[in-house]
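FAQ: What does the model actually see?

It sees only this:
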Amino acid sequence: MINRAPLFLLYLNVLVVATCGLVYELIAGTLASYLLGDSVTQFSFVIGVYLSALGVGAWLSRYVEENLARTFIEVELALALIGGASAPMLFVAFAWIDWFRILLFGSVFVIGVLVGLELPLLMRILKEHLDFSDLVSRVLTFDYIGALLASLMFPILLVPHLGLVRTSLVFGILNALVGWWGTYLLRPLLSSRSLGGLRGRAVIAIGLLVVAMIKADTLTMWAEEYILQSPIVYAKQTPFQRIVVTRNDDGFQLHLNGHLQFNSADEYRYHEALVHPAMASVANPRRVLVLGGGDGLAVREILKYPSVESVTLVDIDPGMTGLSQTLEPLSALNEQALSDPRVTVENRDAFVWIGESSERFDAVIIDFPDPGTYSIGKLYTTRFFTLLRRVLAPNAVVGIQCTSPLVAPKSFWCIVSTMEAAGFQVRPYHVAVPTFGVWGFGMAGIGDSVPRIPRLAPIDGDLRYLNAEAMQNLFDMPADLRRVETGLNRLNDQILVRYYEQEWGS
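And it is asked to produce this:
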């Protein structure tokens, strides 16, 4: 028999089990999105596989007729090793094997089966101590509380402070501790012969996971260097994204969530094309707004205009804007732009900030990441562009990056069409960036504020790419970049994200 105190502690086991199970699922879904792209589809598949596996595990529990306590502990230890090692295993596997998807969804299925086994086994262990209604209500209460804790802790505490690999290993250790702890709570139900073996395996599992924790940073960096094919000089997980800076013979590169943002060897082509057409279209721009662009490279180009009195940069991630000022290669590349006294940095969600702002700007430069997720896709909706009109001074001009019109024509023209539906007149243009290929932009304004082809204005400093002839060529859209019909990207129907996943994922 189990006395009342250990009985309550077993309910806490339910809490830990539920929390661990959901954390493993969230890690797998995040890794699937991070490594494979197509975030919505991958996360949906992970959830579906995990939930179906829970049912399989619950069904299999009916075949466990003897040694319930021992089986429960063994399941805990198996889950500790498989679930705890899942993130480092998947990181390494992605770099080395071609059948990564099979391994990913196979591991999700195995983890789901093990989690699905745990709850029925524990309920059968406890059924002799409570009547059925009390048993079900208490166990399920702790199970749902555990799921709530996991869903809250994962984005707020775990990933920002531990990262995916350490989070996986920490919860593996927690599972192993539950197994070790269970050998004491369930001691009356265990044979003396099996007790020593169970405790020994629990200690070994904890030891292996602790060693993996110590080596977690080395393992993660090694896997990412292999994936990104360049040595890593900086890596950090912020509450919003994983920032990785690599270096090779060509220079250094910035990656956000595994996606290349720029290469220092040719970023000037992109940023000059993004900034100068819009800035040159405004007579003596004084107040400039930059949305996104936490690397400071767009701000560097804006500060070349002697008329500029203030630049407001709105970027959600203080980790990114801080890095732009403290990481020597990046701060040198942006020429300490974010430390200029004319620049104000706002670490806010641009969608929220622009809805609250009462300021007016002569020029707006939009340098958001590509719309690969719904959280970014909302920044390219009719609602966002309608809000954007509120912060424009008379005759203001907007410059925006719109992904590649060659690789992703539907995505490119969807952004253009969505801006037009919000009341903008848009001039599409493009530039060749060796690292990325043909890249697309839009220059937009209200009414007649946007000239067909702007002329470069006098600036402080030199341009490495743009001159009068190159400016003319930007707006020459060849036949293979011609307009295609698309839907509009609305807040309640982000068709742009689906276009983007189809075109870049193909």
